[in-house]
Amino acid sequence: MGESEGRQSSPPPETPAESPAVTAVLGGRLSLSTWALATFDVGLFVLVAVLAGHASGALSDLLGGLNTLVGAAVFCVVWALFVLAVWWVDSRVELSASLWTLALHGFAAGAMAGVAFLLGLVAVLAVPALAEGLALGTATLSAVAGVALFLLVGVAVASLIGGAIGLLVGVLDGLCFRLADRVLAASAGDR
């Protein structure tokens, strides 16, 4: 099976070059639909997370330990991961593909994004603390082993959680695409 199985679109028209950073990471342009879907998806994700946190009462404790800069940075990282995940799925299948195909690709992209988020957290929180402990001679082998065990279990959990979110988002994006297609077809028929 080829990477572009199910792709039925023509190549995009020539447009101005993307920034070198985007080209280096993605190898090409991001389409407007990728940006729009990723922005919609991350907005919905944050809304659901905030409502769930508020309903459980955990939101005030979580927000009490953050500041605006940290919150904005976390949002930007999550948004970038959503953009990359949507781009990855969009580069492999069309939104008109079966919901099953979108769900599987969404699961894979979400799992990768979940692991990337976890690794980012570990890099920001645990690695500097371990490096300082090793430099001062206060880090023990059990601390290093604890981080390794956390990563081992955390990667499995993060991939399952990210995969579940990706699966739901993939199906939601497919349903939104189908709805938009029907609305546009109906409005074109009214003219």
TrEMBL record:
Pfam families, sorted: DUF7965
Name assigned to this protein: DUF7965 domain-containing protein
Domain of life: Archaea
InterPro entries registered for this protein in UniProt: DUF7965
Domain DUF7965: 31-190
TM regions (residue ranges): 35-57, 69-90, 102-131, 143-172
Keywords: Membrane, Transmembrane, Transmembrane helix
